[in-house]
Amino acid sequence: MLWGADGFVGRHYDVLDVWSSYAAQLSGVPLPGGHFVPEQSPSQTLAALRSFLEGEQVLRSARG
Asked: Rounded to an integer, what distance in angstroms lies between the CA atom of residue 47 and that of residue 26?
């Protein structure tokens, strides 16, 4: 999961904790920006998506 660290969700919720009850395998990271993360942090978004799609374990995991 990716979300904007500076947006409402990033400021008010522990995103991985909220979603951990809905997904057995969950990983994610907050990125700089608000609601439009791909537009506000394009290089970080690309790096995170590329890592996920390549199967790398570089994002922090809610399940440790």
From this structure: 18
In a domain, 32, yes or no: yes
Instruction: Check if the beta carbon of residue 59 is closer than 8 Å to that of residue 15.
Output: no
Residues 6+ apart with CB under 8 A from 57: 27
Residues of the chain with pLDDT under 50: 61-64
* Owning domain of residue 15: 2-53
Q: How many domains does the chain have?
A: 1
- Tell the residue number behind the tokens 């995103």, with chain if given: 15
pLDDT, the chain, mean: 88
